[in-house]
Amino acid sequence: MSEPKLLTLDISGIEPEAGAPAPERIVSGNPQFRTWNVEEHGDDLYAGVWESTSGKWRIEYDEWEYCRILSGISVITEEGGEARTVRAGDSFVLRPGFRGSWEVLETTRKEYVIRL
């Protein structure tokens, strides 16, 4: 039987991977991550659900990422740019070369698609 071509981002039954920002990137707090990878296609495409507890850390993107916030509140600030508050229902793209910070004010959960 061939692999289905329609994939939902259903995380039930998937064990999340635990993680955190690298210690040198943390600005404040003790953010802890959980990631449910639903799709991994080769070495260049990933999709799933990510969650973080409160804290702030520096981010640097070499990849392209589409995000849709499912719950919580975060503030994303690009170096030299304005802070943007994101919450449930917001969607956005972080492009390669994005540098700045991500601050989780309320535990935040997002769906993501990453293309390297």
TrEMBL record:
Domain annotation (S)-ureidoglycine aminohydrolase cupin: ranges: 43-112
Parts of the chain that traverse the membrane: none
Name of the protein in its database record: Cupin
Organism: Aquamicrobium defluvii
